[in-house]
Amino acid sequence: MAIKINERDEVIARLSAEGKRRIMNSPEDHAMRERINDYVEEARRECIRIARASEMAAAKFIITS
Amino acid sequence: MSITTIICTLSEVRDQLIELMKDEFSVSHEVAEKVYDRRVHPHFQRFQPNVRFVIEYPYIDRVYRDSYYSYFSSKLSNYKKDCIRLSLFNGDVMMDQFRDQAQISDLRNRYLGFMILRPTLPNVIGRSVISPLALVQHDFLCVMGRFQSTVCSVKFEVTGFPHSSQDTETITCAETSIWAIMEYFASKYPEYKLAPPSTIINTLENRSSFRQIPSEGLNVDQMGYALREFGFGTKIYSKAEIGEGFKNLLSTYVESGLPLIAIISNAHNGGGVGHVVLIIGHRSTSNVKIDQLQIKREQDTKLARILQQRKIQIIDNDDIERDFVSVDDNYPVYQLVSLDQPVQYYQNLDWANCEIIHFLVPLYPKIYLDALLAKKYIKQLLLETQFNIPEGTELFIRIFLTSSRSYKDYLSQDQSFQRNFRAFILGIPMSKFIWVGEISSRELIKQKKAKGLIIINATELKLINYDALVVSGYDDRFYYPDDVSRELAENLIALGEFNIYTNNLKGF
Question: Where are the alpha helices (DSSP H) in B12-112?
């Protein structure tokens, strides 16, 4: 007989049944998400700037030795 | 023409090779002696005293033949086509053993690699792969491929990193580093191909306004272009742009098991050196180094503010003052260097004072999330998410890139993980590459253990709304984005302590 296993779903179901799992959808949780979103967007812009500046700074450097 | 074999010890190899170079490369005894003492001996003096050599000649080397037919044969002077091959073994070797099936497996266990001597005097060291075990000093970790070779017609395999000296005409340090990178990746992954000198030259044909050979070096832009053409999504980082976190960033990629191309210069001292070395690993981490690790000021102002508010301190694995393993085509393979003085072994002071000004990372093309942003994101998640981190805690973090296949393989066999947490992670569909942040403490990491974990999808650049988060857990809980609502789901499970992942460099 075929056996179907989904261990991840089993863990989730077990934690839910034991009251050890919750979806973080309170206003505080959303505020936390927004803080992380704001931070990563700003960090991403900074990383793009560094990447472009690095490419330009390095491009013409000649390696001869 | 027939193949001649010489078997000799470390103390006998000088006389044998001088005679051989004199005869095979048609040079005087004095020239052969000088070439041996200056160019070959520095490699051998680092070998274990019980290393034995099996010397075979003539040998047709694919890389030198490529240079020969694309360049040296076009000269009037009579350049030789053939090379000399040296194979290395640990302990005594007898010719009869190569013809005895029962003894071949013993020889294979004691095989330490090969080195080609090519007739491009004085730069005679050609394609080589030497096992670190051949060296007296081999307490380091580095990326290595597996390379097949034959000795006395018997197939052997060595684990090591490819190396060659530059011949200064078809390959300078820039081409040699690209060649070595491609040899390494081609030995590991079928999607990458070898890049002999003529392939590199042909690839850059449309990117060069002037003649390409004899080589006068490459600029960094050409190196990046060549790597992109050979299948990489190359990233470059400049010290001038990254600032204080430059060494930390370089270390993150080394910890990720990627060979890096480091651009070396003394321009800051008004010099004109432009050189390239590969950085392929680091010395094993000692408890003393962990104890000496200082808390560095967080460069990112927002993260620094949160750390201050929560009274948490972070020490970073990538700030440990280690020696790194470099491959320099002017010196023997596996040099141990500090990142502050990456070529300190040069006798010339102008060179010894060089520093790394840029480094290139040959990334798999679908890794869209780079180390710079991944590290910031992992730290942000660690500090913002509601983990139970008491005030005054000092966290040790270790962040690296790996393939999800390797990570899951390790996880599936590691019994130290909490059973449900492990089953949960193994059941998550993951991108081919993932960023992993392991959270430990100064004492726990000495036992190679962690108590927290953050896994990020390396193919997702859109980090908002937890889109790139796979799972994050620390101490008594873990989080993941719920499949339906995409909100974060909090799960209370005591994770305990678990073994850190050491597959990238095969150690810590």
Answer: 13-24, 29-35, 41-44, 62-70, 101-109
Rounded to whole angstroms, the Cα distance separating B417 from B411 reads 8
Average pLDDT over residues B171-191: 95
Where do the structural domains in chain A lie, given as residue ranges?
23-59
Q: How many residues does chain B have?
A: 508
* Residues B110 and B220 reside in one and the same domain: no
Confidence of residue B270 (pLDDT cuts 50, 70, 90): confident
Contacts of A16 in chain B (CB under 8 A): none
B341-385 pLDDT, tens digit per residue, is 999 999 888 888 899 999 999 999 999 999 999 999 999 999 988
CB contacts, 8 Å: B216 with chain A: 64
Does residue B207 share a domain with residue B355? no
Q: Mutual orientation of helices B419-426 and B404-413 as an angle, nearest 10°? A: 150
Same domain, B279 and B144: no
- For the record, the structure tokens of B41 come out as 């001996």
C-beta of residue B412 within 8 angstroms of C-beta of residue B371 = no
ipTM of the complex model:
0.94
Is residue B313 domain-resident? no
Clarify whether residues B418 and B466 are in a common domain: yes
B299 in reach of chain A (CB within 8 A): no
Q: Does B64 lie in the same domain as B209?
A: no
- Kindly state whether residues B143 and B263 are assigned to the same domain: no
Q: Do residues B161 and B263 share a domain?
A: no
Please give the average per-residue pLDDT across B256-285, as a whole number: 94
Mean pLDDT across chain B: 95
Among B435, B338, B339, B438, smallest CA distance to B395 is for B438
Q: What angle do CA B333, B335, B338 make, to 5 degrees?
A: 155
Whether the CB-CB separation of B490 and B411 falls below 8 Å is answered with no
Set of chain B residues whose Cβ sits within 8 Å of the Cβ of A14: 420
Q: In this complex, do A43 and B380 lie within 8 Å of one another by their Cβ atoms? A: yes
Cis peptide bond upstream of B58, omega within 30 = yes
Residue A58 distance to chain B (closest CA, Å):
6
Same domain for B26 and B128?
yes
Domain count, chain B: 4
What does the pLDDT read at residue B183? 98
Query: A62: pLDDT confidence band, cut at 50, 70 and 90?
Result: confident
Which residue matches tokens 């990117």?
B207
Q: A3 vs chain B: nearest CA distance in angstroms?
A: 16
Q: Which residues of B448-474 are buried (b: 16+ CB within 10 A; e: fewer)?
A: ebbbbbbbbbbbebebebbebbbbbbb
Q: What tens digit of pLDDT does each residue of B309-348 get?
A: 999 999 999 999 999 999 999 999 999 999 999 999 998 8
Given this model, what pLDDT does residue B205 score? 87
B300 located within any domain: no
Full domain range(s) for residue B227: 168-232
CA dihedral sign of residues B331, B336, B342, B347: negative
Residue of A nearest to B216 (CA): A64
